[in-house]
Amino acid sequence: MNTYPIGTPGQPWGEAERAAWLALQRRQRSYKEEVLAAIERLASRCEVQQYGELNYGDERFPLMAIRNHWQEGLPVVLVTGGVHGYETSGVHGALQFVEQHAGHYAGRVNLLVAPCVSPWAYERIQRWNANAVDPNRSFRENSPAAESAALLQLVAPVREQVLLHIDLHETTDTDESEFRPALAARDGKPYEPCGIPDGFYLVDDSEQPQPEFQQAVIAAVEKVTHIAPADENNEIIGSPVVARGVIEYPLTKLGLCAGITNARYKTTTEVYPDSPRATPEQCNAAQVAAVCAAIDYALAHC
């Protein structure tokens, strides 16, 4: 039975339930101080652009992207983080990658990094946007999520030039305690627990799998943090494990961020920050290791 405190079991939410959910959301950290300030510090060595603005009530959130110095003819590498605002290492891992490694790839790839796609959700440590919409199921034409629509518009001019897209995420204990129950309640469905994997894993594109690429990323991340094992059903979060630490989704069909281009190489990282075997620093470092390994593999095999 759905025991989420908002809504009636078996009935999808209407406007009243969404408003009740929104009223519970509280600002817990600062996008300006923690993200925009970090981006500003990078402006002396990278190109920073505002690609949109979110407007929720009286709040305004500039949407920012970072580029290295682009050169005609180089492949594009797209790095996205914070599509789910509560997934902290996705945001700070992307920023740390730019700070520590963007210079290494100068003249080799054109980097386009959107480190915090969902700043309202970042501040609330929330999965959805203010309208109770999941941006990471909304990357499609006429998107219901302004966050997703803005990123699609940013990427559109270079969409066919993208060699690699790596989308940085986390799987947290609150997925099971809050976000999946909320999803079930919102959609009027029963909540079915599926467990939280202890460790890092990747999501490949089932429509265009690249198993060797995924394993190269796994091998690099394993030097930083542990890899999630399969459960007793040989699954991770209800999906069959196709290789060590890898599951597959039809990325574009599901409206997922990693499916917004025709890149040859696509992956979604999933860090587990709640593990007693991982620190916030390790989680950020795991995201950085994944990005570097992904770029290195793509360049070696393009």
CATH topology: Aminopeptidase
Count of individual domains: 1
CATH superfamily: Zn peptidases
Strand order of the largest sheet: 1-2-4-3-5-10-6-9
Gap between N and C termini, in Å? 50 Å
**CATH architecture verdict:** 3-Layer(aba) Sandwich
The global form is: globular
- Beta-strand content estimate: 15-25%
Order of helices and strands: HHEEEHEHHEHEHEEEEH
The beta-strand count equals: 10
The major beta sheet can be summarized as: 8 strands, mixed
* Overall CATH class: Alpha Beta
Uncertain stretches: none
Cofactor: Zn(2+)
Family: Belongs to the peptidase M14 family.
Keywords: Hydrolase, Metal-binding, Zinc
Pfam families: AstE_AspA_cat (PF24827)
Features:
alpha/beta; Aminopeptidase; eight-stranded mixed β-sheet; two-stranded antiparallel sheet; 8 helices; metallocarboxypeptidase activity; zinc; Peptidase_M14; metal-binding
Question: Secondary structure elements and their pairing?
Answer:
Blueprint: H1 15-23, H2 31-42, E1 47-56, E2 59-67, E3 76-81, H3 88-101, E4 110-114, H4 119-124, H5 146-155, E5 162-170, H6 173-187, E6 201-205, H7 211-221, E7 235-236, E8 239-240, E9 246-249, E10 265-271, H8 280-301
Parallel strand pairs: 3-4, 3-5, 5-10, 6-9
Antiparallel strand pairs: 1-2, 2-4, 6-10, 7-8
TL;DR?
The chain is an alpha/beta fold.
What do these coordinates show?
This protein is α/β, with parallel strands linked by helices. It has a single domain, classed as 3-Layer(aba) Sandwich (Aminopeptidase). Helices cover 33% and strands 20% of the residues. The protein has helices at 15-23, 31-42, 88-101, 119-124, 146-155, 173-187, 211-221, 280-301; strands at 47-56, 59-67, 76-81, 110-114, 162-170, 201-205, 235-236, 239-240, 246-249, 265-271. An 8-stranded mixed beta sheet has the order 1-2-4-3-5-10-6-9, sandwiched between helices. A two-stranded antiparallel ribbon has the order 7-8. A hairpin with a 2-residue loop joins β1 and β2 (59-67). α2 (31-42) runs parallel beside α3 and α3 crosses α8. The longest helix is centred in the last third of the chain and has 22 residues, at 280-301. Keywords: Hydrolase, Metal-binding, Zinc. Its cofactor is Zn(2+). This is M14 family metallocarboxypeptidase.
